[in-house]
Design goal:
- The protein has 377 residues and is of the alpha/beta class.
- It folds into two domains: 128 residues, Aspartate Aminotransferase, domain 1 (Alpha-Beta Complex); 234 residues, Aspartate Aminotransferase, domain 2, CATH 3.40.640.
- It contains 13 helices and 13 strands.
- The strands form three sheets. Strands 2-8-7-6-5-3-4 form a seven-stranded mixed β-sheet, with helices on both faces. Strands 9-10-13-12 form a four-stranded antiparallel β-sheet, with helices on one face. It has a two-stranded parallel ribbon with strand order 1-11.
- Strand 5, helix 7 and strand 6 form a beta-alpha-beta unit.
- The structure holds pyridoxal-5'-phosphate.
- The site of pyridoxal-5'-phosphate has 14 residues, from helix 4.
Length: 377
Amino acid sequence: MLDLPQYPWRLLAPYKQSASEHRDGLVDLSIGAPVDPTPRVIQSALQSAANWPGYPGSSGTDQLREAIAEWYDRRRKVPGLTKDHVAATVGSKEFIAWLPVLLGLGPDDVIVYPTVAYPTYDIGAKIVGATSVTADSLTELDETTRAKVKLVWVNSPGNPTGIVQDTQVLANIVQDARAIGAVVASDECYAELGWGTWEDKSIPSILHPQVAGGDFRGLLSVYSLSKQSNMAGYRAAFVAGDEQLIAALINLRSHTGMVVPGPIQHAMIAALSDEDHVIEQKSRYRKRREQLMAAIELTGLTVEHSEAGLYLWVRDPRITEPAAEDSWALVSRFAEAGILVGPGVFYSAAGNGYIRASITATDEAIDQAVTRLNAGI
Ligand SMILES: Cc1ncc(COP(=O)(O)O)c(C=O)c1O
C-alpha cells in the first residue's frame, strides 16, 4: 500500500466544532469550493448531451479540443495551439497527482514545486517515490539536485498566496528548466480571477509567447473550469502544450480509462465559449473579496499578496518570527467568532503564521463574517 499522509483537513475538525457553537452559526471560509449555481448556459448544454450511449474519446472530442485551443488564443493570448496540443482531464487535481506517473518518473528523480503550495504537487511526487523539493526558482537548487530535476511545477496565480508571476519570471523558469531538460507544468486554474493591478490584464500562461517563445516543447499549462464556471462538481479541466507529451499522455490515459464523460465534455464547450458568466461570477467574488479584506484589515491583521484567485492570505503583523502554532492561534481567534479558516501550515513551513480565508462563500455568509470581524477578533 502506498504510504500517503492523511488528509490534513481533519486537523481542523476541533476548530470547526468550536466555530459551529457560535450563536449565529458557522461561517466556513476554509475551503475554496464554489457555492453559486452552475450557469444556466452550462446546465443546458449538459442536459442537451445527456444521450451519450457510446464511450467518449479520452482526449476529448475534436469540438472540445478546438474550443480549448480557441480559448487559449482569445483569453490567454496564446496563439498557435491546435487540437493536438490539448487534452481534457477529469478535473485538474487528478492530472496534477498523476502527472509524475504519466511521465514515468521514479525514485531517482526530483520534482520541484513552489515554496508555499497546494499539497497535490507533493502527493504526485510521493506516488512515484520521487524526491520533492520546494523552490520558486531553479537557481535556488544546488548542482546535484538540479541535475535530477525532471518536473517543475509552477502555480500562478498561486494557491494559497494569490501571487501572480509575470512573463519575465515565467520565462526565466522556462529557460532554466529547458537547460536541464525538465518539463514545466503550470497550474493556472485562477487565471481568470485577477484583482488590483491584474484586474484588467491577462494573467500570463506558461505558453504565452513572451514566456515560451512560440515553442511549446517541454511545457504544459493546466487549467480548470471548476472555479471560473462553478463546475467543480462536473470535474472539467484540461491540459495544453507540448504536442508529443500530450499525445503520450492521451495514450496512457486511454489505456487507464481516465476519461471525461461525454456530456461533461459538451458542457465544457459551452463554458469555454461564453464569457458573460465568467464576468458575472467574478463580480460576485470581487464584492465579497473587498468586503472581507476590509473587515480583516480593520482587525489589525494584514492581507498579503492575494493579487488573484479566491483566497486572502492573512497574518498578524505583530508576529515577526512566526511558527506553526501562530497559524493555529489565528485559526482559533477566527473560530471564536464562529469563522473557520485554513491554517497556512497546511501549505508548508513557509506558511507558518498565516491563515487562508476563502471568498467562496455566499453573500449572506460574507456579511456575517464582516459583522463578526467588525465586532473584533
Ligand atoms: C492550485 C489548485 N490547483 C488545482 C486545483 C484542483 O481543481 P480541480 O480539480 O477542481 O480542477 C485546485 C483546487 O482548489 C487548486 O487550488
